[in-house]
């Protein structure tokens, strides 16, 4: 980066030509003691169009590249804009500006600049890599893969570009090609443990997404042997274990993530869910409650279920109601969870009340009717249970159990009437 010019004081009026001075004073309508500032020349570079020295485009481009390397996207953007002011047609500056915009999250704008830059110059590997990043962020996965291919073709030895291409191919379902890229990359970095670990991590993701859980876990274990304290490697292992239904292994991996990064909120929430799947409900509650303010609707739903399974009914219902308020369209069935939370706690009248409350907004919900009828049965109100079970029979998901219960209720009612006549 070029050194900043020292702050310059207002130039002395005696350095300004008489004609210019007269014009300045006349146009301002002020006396010489109130003459406006004359902008001093930039002393940092060569002479520009107006005769004032300026920094050339190459210096700004080099500074922008340095800033990008250091992760300072805002500063890089400023330098590339200055380069384009100096030389508007400079494709390298345009590509750099596009990369900086992508780094700052302006994907569409950055992609447009990178497309223009790479249209006339096909030799900028880093520009193709950033263009791939922009397409990937916008969900244009096929275009992302094609851009990454261009980057790999220009710099075959660049591991980051190869892994980016493998990841994009995984996203679009080209698993075999992605795995082949990883295998080839592994041969090139076999004596570089850190790089080899990243290759195995990517291979693990490919195999996991492909549904080959044993191969995925094998790749992740090899990555973890090389980089045991890399949270992304261990997190990838946890994701693969979850995808394959290996919840105990996932819990172990997530515990490891939290030892490495104790403040990792996403890992705590995932660990809560994994423990819920393992029916370790008190442990699940502990992990969810540790990040209570960061819980999404789905997290609260599982936390509520964990409380219900732990016989903490009122807290469970409180959370279920929060879920229903936050996302009523996607969680209409949450009233059934509430009703059964009361039912499982032997609070049958509350179960009935909750089921009827839910049916006001979801009248076709057979789960609520089935719970309502079961609660009536538990309270000995068999005559009332019969029409409610009859309504539940209409839903194919509840037809068979509702018929069995309906027949049982009718037998009970018949038996009770026979006993009454006998008395």
- Low-pLDDT parts are 1-54
**Rg from C-alpha positions?**
34 Å
How far apart lie the N and C ends? Answer: 103 Å
The SSE order reads: HEEHHHHHHHHHHHHHHHHHHHHH
Descriptive notes:
The protein has 423 residues and is mostly helical. It is 71% helix and 1% strand. The protein has 22 helices and 2 strands. It has helices at 18-28, 57-69, 73-86, 91-103, 107-120, 125-137, 141-154, 159-171, 175-188, 193-210, 213-226, 231-243, 247-260, 265-277, 281-289, 297-309, 313-326, 334-344, 348-361, 366-378, 382-392, 399-422, and strands at 46-47, 53-54. Strands 1-2 form a two-stranded antiparallel ribbon. Helix 2 (57-69) packs parallel to helix 4 (91-103), helix 13 packs antiparallel against helix 14 and helix 17 packs antiparallel against helix 18 (334-344). The termini are far apart. The model is unreliable at 1-54 (pLDDT under 50).
Keywords:
423 residues, mainly alpha, two-stranded antiparallel sheet, 22 helices, 2 strands, 71% helix, elongated, disordered N terminus
Can you lay out the helices and strands and say which pair or pack?
Blueprint: H1 18-28, E1 46-47, E2 53-54, H2 57-69, H3 73-86, H4 91-103, H5 107-120, H6 125-137, H7 141-154, H8 159-171, H9 175-188, H10 193-210, H11 213-226, H12 231-243, H13 247-260, H14 265-277, H15 281-289, H16 297-309, H17 313-326, H18 334-344, H19 348-361, H20 366-378, H21 382-392, H22 399-422
Antiparallel strand pairs: 1-2
Helix pairs in contact: 2-3, 2-4, 3-4, 4-5, 4-6, 5-6, 6-7, 7-8, 8-9, 8-10, 9-10, 10-11, 10-12, 11-12, 12-13, 13-14, 14-15, 14-16, 15-16, 16-17, 16-18, 17-18, 18-19, 18-20, 19-20, 20-21, 21-22
């Amino acid at each position: 980066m070029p050194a900043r010019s020292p702050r310059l004081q207002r130039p002395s009026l005696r350095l300004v030509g008489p004609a210019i001075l007269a014009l300045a004073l006349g146009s301002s309508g002020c006396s010489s003691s109130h003459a406006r500032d004359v902008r001093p020349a930039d002393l940092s570079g060569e002479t520009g169009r107006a005769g004032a020295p300026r920094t050339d485009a190459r210096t700004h481009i080099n500074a922008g590249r340095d800033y990008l390397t250091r992760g300072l996207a805002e500063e890089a953007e400023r330098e590339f804009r200055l380069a384009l002011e100096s030389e508007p047609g400079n494709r390298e500056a345009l590509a750099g500006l596009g990369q900086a915009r992508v780094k700052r999250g302006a994907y569409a704008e950055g992609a447009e600049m990178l497309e223009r830059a790479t249209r006339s110059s096909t030799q900028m590997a880093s520009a193709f890599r950033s263009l791939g990043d922009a397409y990937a962020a916008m969900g244009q996965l096929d275009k992302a893969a094609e851009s990454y291919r261009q980057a790999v073709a220009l710099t075959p030895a660049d591991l980051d570009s190869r892994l980016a291409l493998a990841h994009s191919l995984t996203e679009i379902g080209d698993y075999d090609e992605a795995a082949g890229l990883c295998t080839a990359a592994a041969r090139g970095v076999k004596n570089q443990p850190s790089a080899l670990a990243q290759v195995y991590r990517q291979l693990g993701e490919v195999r996991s997404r492909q549904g080959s859980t044993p191969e995925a876990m094998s790749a992740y274990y090899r990555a973890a042997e090389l980089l045991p304290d890399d949270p992304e490697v261990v997190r990838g292992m946890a994701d693969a274990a979850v995808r394959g239904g290996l919840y105990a292994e996932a819990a172990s991996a997530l515990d490891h993530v939290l030892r490495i990064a104790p403040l990792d909120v996403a890992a705590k929430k995932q660990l809560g869910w994994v423990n819920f799947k393992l029916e370790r409900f008190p442990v699940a509650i502990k992990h969810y409650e540790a990040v209570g303010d960061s819980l999404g609707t789905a997290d609260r739903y599982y936390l509520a279920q964990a409380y219900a399974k732990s016989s903490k009914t009122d807290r469970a219902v409180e959370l279920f109601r929060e879920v229903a308020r936050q996302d009523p369209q996607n969680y209409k069935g949450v009233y059934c969870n509430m009703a059964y939370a009361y039912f499982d706690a032997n609070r049958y009248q509350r179960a009935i009340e909750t089921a009827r409350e839910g049916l006001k907004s979801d009248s076709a919900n057979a789960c609520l009717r089935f719970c309502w009828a079961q609660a009536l049965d538990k309270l000995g109100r068999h005559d009332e249970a019969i029409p409610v079970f009859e309504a539940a029979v209409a839903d194919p998901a509840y037809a068979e159990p509702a018929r069995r219960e309906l027949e049982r209720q009718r037998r009970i009612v018949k038996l009770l009437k026979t006993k009454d006549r006998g008395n």
